[in-house]
Amino acid sequence: MDRSYNLNKKSALVLEGGGMRGVFTAGVLDNLMDRGIQFPYVIGVSAGACCALSYMAHQRGRAKYGNIDLLEQYNYIGIGNLIFKGNIMDFDLLFHTFPEKIYPYDYEALARNSARFEIVTTSCLTGKPCYYDERQSPRRIIDIVKASSSMPFVSPIVYVDGEPMLDGGISDSIPLMRAIGQGYKNNMVVLTRNIGYRKPDKPSRVPFFCYRKYPAMRKAIMERNAMYNRQIEQVERLEEEGKVTVLRPVNPIVVDRIERDCNKLLALYNEGYNCANGIQFL
After folding, report:
1. Which of 51, 86, 111, 275 is at a distance of 20 to 30 A from 80, taking alpha carbons?
2. Phi, psi torsion values for 226, nearest 5 degrees
3. Tens place of pLDDT for every residue, the chain, 282 residues?
């Protein structure tokens, strides 16, 4: 069913993470670029932030290439990476070789874009979200996006300005309230789970030997399920009240957070693209 959305100066695009489920977001954003739609404020978490980088630089198809074509060529996800490189994903490939050599990222286009763009990370010291808007330093941009994408337990801690950081989704999985707090009242949220999804109603377990130096991070990880479910309930309530527009997968999700089946990923990308087709921008 088609829906209308009044894009104005108070509009924000809020992008959830979700690992490889972020290909849904890549499809949505490619659709927006094909139609020349630019939001004045974009905030992304983890995979959402990675996809938003290409959107902010107007590099249509780049996020799809990184999540599907690059995976098909290099198989950059797996236990082998975790054993030999200390990361379930090959971050050297994804955050250095890919943007520098394989599909160069247009940092100049990002700097020229007048829209605001924030990336969410989680501080290991405080367990709280941090919000970054970096346009000038390519190295710092990469550090921030790497930190936002560093999943606990299977990715290393990343330092931003000397502060240890991990996945932004640990502390602010769906940063809608950040957008509202910044003055954006007309929001579109892109989720990567079906309607009604909830995380298990119990604290996440943190092995005693993990993050012993960072008790606030341990606490944030343990409380993540409850935090995420509160945010989802808030999004659904605001959606029912007509105060937020939500795009989410309709078909049952068969894509895992570290999915390696490119056919499944392509199907989810296409669903995201087609889902955005149902929005008429006014």
Report:
1. 51
2. -65, -40
3. 689 999 999 999 999 999 999 999 999 999 999 999 999 999 999 999 999 999 999 999 999 999 999 999 999 999 999 998 899 999 999 999 999 999 999 999 999 999 999 999 999 999 999 999 999 999 999 999 999 999 999 999 999 999 999 999 999 999 999 999 999 999 999 999 999 999 999 999 999 999 999 999 999 999 999 999 999 999 999 999 999 999 999 988 999 999 999 999 999 999 999 999 999 999
Strands (E), 16-112: 41-45
Distance CA 52, CA 54 (A): 5
Token pair 């938003």 is found at 52
Query: Do 266 and 19 touch, CB atoms closer than 8 A?
Result: no
Strand partners, 41: 116
pTM of the entire structure?
A: 0.97
> How many Å apart are CA 179 and CA 198, to the nearest integer?
22
**Helix or strand or coil: residue 249?**
coil
Long-range contacts formed by 81-84: CB under 8 A, 24+ apart? 82/154
